[in-house]
C-alpha cells in the first residue's frame, strides 16, 4: 500500500466519477465496522438527498444495523451539510496549492498524472483536517449543539408549483 494512504480507509471510484448505490452500500458497511453500531446503540448519518443514498439495499442494511439516515432538504447542503460549511472550501484550496507545488517541482507546467492525484489529495487533506474543523461544521450548521434559530423559516419554505414549472406553463398550480 502507498505510505500516504490511510490504512483503514477504502478507496473506490465509479466509471462516471459519481457515487453509485453499490459504492454507497459498500461505504455504509465499512462505516458500520468502525463506529460499533448496533440496533441497541444506533448512530445518525446526515446526508445530502442524492438518489444513490436511498436504495432498498442501503435502507435494509441501515435498518438491520442501527444506522439512522437523515437526508437534508434539497438545495441546502451549503447551509446544512457540515462538510460543505467548514471543510470542502479549505480542502479545495489546499489541493490546488499541492497541485501548484507538484507542477513547479516537475519541470514547470507538466501535467498532473492520474497516479499523482491520490498523493496530492492526501497531502492537502492531512494539512487541513482537524477535530476543531469537524466540530465547527456541526456547530455552524446548527446540528450540534442544536440551534433552531440559526436559519429563518422563510429559508426552507416549499417551492410552489408555479416556481417549479414556470409562470407560462400550461400546468395549473395546485393550491
Automatic annotation (TrEMBL):
Positions in coiled-coil regions: none
Domain spans labelled DDE-1: 9-131
InterPro entries in the cross-refs: CenT-Element_Derived (IPR050863), DDE_SF_endonuclease_dom (IPR004875), RNaseH_sf (IPR036397)
Domain of life, source organism: Eukaryota
Gene3D superfamilies cross-referenced by the UniProt entry: Ribonuclease H-like superfamily/Ribonuclease H
Molecular-function GO term, any one: DNA binding
GO CC aspect terms: nucleus
Protein name, UniProt field: Uncharacterized protein LOC115883338
Provenance organism: Sitophilus oryzae
